[in-house]
Amino acid sequence: MALTVKHFQLMEADYGMAKKLRYLLAHLYGFDVEVSCRDFLVQAGEAEQDTWVAIQKAFAQTKGANIRLQQLAEKANLEYQVEQAYEAGRVCAQELLPAQLIARGMELRYSKNPYWQKADVPEQVQQAWSDGFQEYLELTREESW
């Protein structure tokens, strides 16, 4: 079974199971993405399951050298890193005292960011952490009124 346009459209779609499928693809290509194949297969519909089987067959046939799948895996890995960084930024802000967060929020947004200005970290990941922190900072400021 070869990968078709419909398979790629499903992989690139913007809904939960498509995201899990992309994360499985990234994991298949060796990226450190936390995803459960079991959970995916239990929740997936026939189209998602068919696409996953087609991905595995294409991977095996090309020994992982399918350029389009590699690119999707890299994109999925970045998507996962951005998601994780956003959540980590939000959690970091939650762990601070509200008074400290309100008084020094903008300063802490940069000084606490573990990804900030690291050459090996994509800019989107650095920004995602900052955005997650900023979201909780704004929520705290609104509640303090």
What do you see in this structure?
With 145 residues, the protein is an all-alpha fold. It has two domains: 5-76, no CATH class; 78-144, no CATH class. It is built from seven helices and no strands. Helix 1 packs across helix 4 (46-62), helix 2 runs parallel beside helix 4 and helix 2 crosses helix 5 (67-95). The longest helix has 29 residues, at 67-95. The radius of gyration is 19 Å and the shape is elongated.
- Tally of contiguous helical segments: 7
Strand content: under 5%
Number of strands: 0
The whole-angstrom Rg is 19 Å
Q: What order do the SSEs take from the amino end to the carboxyl end, as H and E?
A: HHHHHHH
How is the biggest beta sheet arranged? none
- Mean pLDDT over all positions: 94
Structural class designation: mainly alpha
Into which percent range does the helicity of residues fall? over 70%
Q: Enumerate the spans where pLDDT stays under 50 for 5 or more consecutive residues.
A: none
Silhouette: elongated
Q: Please indicate the count of domains.
A: 2
Q: Kindly, what is the distance between the CA atoms of the first and last residues, rounded to a whole number of angstroms?
A: 60 Å
Structure described in brief:
Helices cover 75% and strands 0% of the residues. It is built from seven helices and no strands. The protein has helices at residues 5-11, 16-28, 37-43, 46-62, 67-95, 98-111, 123-144.
Keywords:
2 domains; 145 residues; mainly alpha; 7 helices; single chain
Blueprint of the fold:
Elements: H1 5-11, H2 16-28, H3 37-43, H4 46-62, H5 67-95, H6 98-111, H7 123-144
Helix pairs in contact: 1-4, 2-4, 2-5, 5-7, 6-7
